[in-house]
Amino acid sequence: CTYFGGLGEALILSTAEDHIIRGEWLVPPGSVFLAECAVEGAVFYLTNKKTHLATLISTFLNSSHRLETGLIKYARGLGGIKQSSTEQFDAMRLLQTNCPELVPLFSLINSSTKSLLENTSNDLGRLDFLDSFELQHWCREKLASPGR
User: Fold this and answer.
1) Is 70 exposed, middle or buried (0-12, 13-18, 19+ CB in 10 A)?
2) What is the mean pLDDT of each run of 10 residues along the chain (148 residues)?
3) In the Cβ-directed half-sphere of 18, how many Cα atoms lie within 13 Å?
4) Alpha carbon distance 116, 130 (integer Å)
5) Within 10 A of 95 (CB to CB), how many other CB atoms are there?
6) How far apart are CA 23 and CA 45, in angstroms?
7) Residue 127 carries which DSSP code?
8) If phi over 0 gives left and psi between -120 and 50 gives alpha, with beta otherwise, what is residue 60?
9) CB 101 within 8 A of CB 143
10) CA–CA gap between residue 122 and residue 9 (Å, rounded)
11) Is the separation of the CB atoms in 9 and 66 below 8 Å?
12) What pLDDT score was predicted for residue 34?
């Protein structure tokens, strides 16, 4: 969770300081692969009913949210869309257009988060335990989204 959450933070910071617009920083392909492995591993262990790692579910959700936010901000930066822009956009289309190499990671975050929330919904009950309203809202959106 620390790895892929940290990658999300790096993406957010790179766009906040406009490093991406000047071409000073790009996402290394190896880091994308390792983030995918980390997400898959975390979901596997957290959905295993015999594990005592269920207390880390909120950590996973927070890290997933940070990574998704970072991916979207990175794609906006590559597309030249100002971070302050209030323009509505489709995140998947934005990624497909500006950085198609990140689409599989974005899709994995969406499907893994939804799967984890669905598989642990009986254990979680309400999402009030999450530390922020933004994260609660994000989780509810994942549960309401169609398909995987």
Assistant:
1) buried
2) 87 72 73 93 80 74 90 83 60 87 93 82 55 68 70
3) 5
4) 15
5) 24
6) 37
7) S
8) alpha
9) no
10) 30
11) yes
12) 93
User: What's the residue count for the chain?
Assistant: 148
> How crowded is residue 71: how many other Cβ atoms within 10 Å of its Cβ?
26
Contact in structure between 57 and 116 (CB atoms under 8 Å): yes
How far apart CA 117 and CA 112 sit, in angstroms, is 8
Residue with tokens 């934005």: 94
3-state secondary structure of 101: helix
Q: How far apart are CA 16 and CA 101, in angstroms?
A: 21
> Both tokens of residue 14?
């790179």
As a whole number of angstroms, the distance between CA 144 and CA 76 comes to 25
